[in-house]
Amino acid sequence: MRQAMRELFDELVKVADQAGKMIRQAAEDASRWVSDNAREHSAGEDDTHPLATIRELGRLRDEGLITEDEFQAKKAELLEEL
Prior knowledge:
The protein is mostly helical. Helices cover 82% and strands 0% of the residues. The chain has one domain.
């Protein structure tokens, strides 16, 4: 019984590690996408774009796809464009 519990625990640790890697990768992908998207539109197509991007960044942050630090850094950059 102890051996079975230990094996189960070891498998759960592996699954948790893999899930963490997948979450970090998704966050990196989302951050890259947001950066690329913001760069494409940074030509100043319209004055509301930076605000819309900040809202989108906030959504990504709330969903855990980017970190608070990434959100704040990009937000500051976008606010400078206003």
